[in-house]
Write a structure and sequence with these properties.
The structure is a single chain. This protein is mostly beta strands. 0% of the residues lie in helices and 58% in strands. The strands form 2 sheets. Strands 2, 4, 5, 6, 9, 10 and 11 form a 7-stranded mixed beta sheet that branches. Strands 1-3-8-7 form a 4-stranded antiparallel beta sheet, with no helix packed on it. The radius of gyration is 13 Å and the shape is globular. The N and C termini lie far apart (37 Å).
Length: 113
């Protein structure tokens, strides 16, 4: 199983970024985006179910971030608009397959003020 994130970078406050996570090797029930800032715990940002496509978001990103999927490409995305300096973190893709959770290596997002 492989999860490969891409799309991170250095942007200014108010800018947008789109993260991608290409998944391979298994069937995934739910896929997630997490983030972890230095000195802080990893937090769940958004999730999307494979079955009905239902989504959930952390309160801190509601209205600004959108998680989506492309079933043909087996890829999920995180569209991040209105970025704030507090959004700076390493963003990780995660996926639940049966009883196992898999993680990508992460992509750095840095938002300057």
């Amino acid at each position: 199983v492989q999860l490969a994130e891409s799309g991170g970078g250095l942007v200014q406050a108010g800018d947008s970024l789109r993260l991608s996570c290409a998944a391979s090797g298994s069937t995934f029930i739910i896929m997630y985006w997490y983030r972890q800032a230095p000195g802080k715990q990893r937090e769940l940002v958004a999730s999307i179910r494979s079955g009905d496509g239902s989504t959930n978001y952390a309160d801190s990103v509601k209205g600004r971030f959108t998680i989506s999927r492309d079933n043909v490409k087996n890829t999920i995305y995180l569209q991040m608009n209105g970025l704030k300096p507090e959004d700076s973190a390493v963003y990780y893709c995660s996926a639940l397959s049966f009883s196992t959770t898999y993680w990508g290596l992460g992509t750095q997002v840095t938002v300057s003020s």
